[in-house]
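Justification of computing resources. Each target in the renewal requires a structure prediction run like the one illustrated here; the chain below, 308 residues long, is used simply to show the kind of job we budget for.
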Amino acid sequence: MIEDVEQQSFGLHCEKVSHWFGETKVLFDLNLKVKAGQFVSLIGPSGCGKSTLLRAILGTHPPNEGRILTIQNGQLTQANHPGRDRGIVYQKYSLYPFLTALDNVALGLKLDQTTTFYRLFNWSGWAKKRKSFRDRAAVFLEKVGLGHAMNMYPNQMSGGMQQRVAIAQALIMEPEIILLDEPFGALDEATREELQEMLLRLYQENQEALSQSQKPPYTLIIVTHELNEAIRVGNRLVGLSQYWNWKEAGHDSPPGATIVYDKDAPIFKPDERPNYESFEDIRKEIRRYVYSPDELQSRYEHLKTNLT
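Resulting structure tokens:
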């Protein structure tokens, strides 16, 4: 069992992670520490391995080399398989069409805490648990702004509403870390902004917990191609890229993408409308050092010390 003070600050540790598919090298010697309560925006060119990294953290595709550590049942554990300590939200939400929003969100608790045998042969016990699960689901639907839509079915909801349900599905399991893989990519701009504000409210809850010396409830990594979104939602910007000076590092061929950029991002309140023009200097720096094949920098040149 790890010490309480360490558990308070620990979120995720990717240590010397490398991954490849046959001859195709995807990730190389990737190191990333995420503290509990941080919201990390993971950015990078198409094909650099962002989704591969998320799947490695999730545990469905463990890295070929290196290790990923998370908190599982209060212990520091290598994440070699999926676990309740990690939740994920994909761009394409997958809700059960025959369940209401309330029952879609409650489903995770049902599958985690009861069995088919229990539900069939302990009706009174299952009735009590079902009510408890649905009450808990209602709390999280309120949190994501869907208190009015609990009894709606997916085909009665907009895409943004369905994505809110998917996020509530992840939150209700209270994972140590939440992964979001392009969660708002298919939504219109106005809906994206509403969901960004929802995530900022979760970050505000983190700050309130920290002010009371409590462990922040939400640690989050969001993959997004939209730089304004990355800057607004994350309090930390991490750039993963295949464009770095691997020849100078002694490699004869590209060894894969690694982290080439890691800096703090400005913090916004949920109701604060940012001036996106003020992001231009940050966007230029990111495009130059993360996205440009013409700027092959040392992989360590644009990293903050908060990596360690």
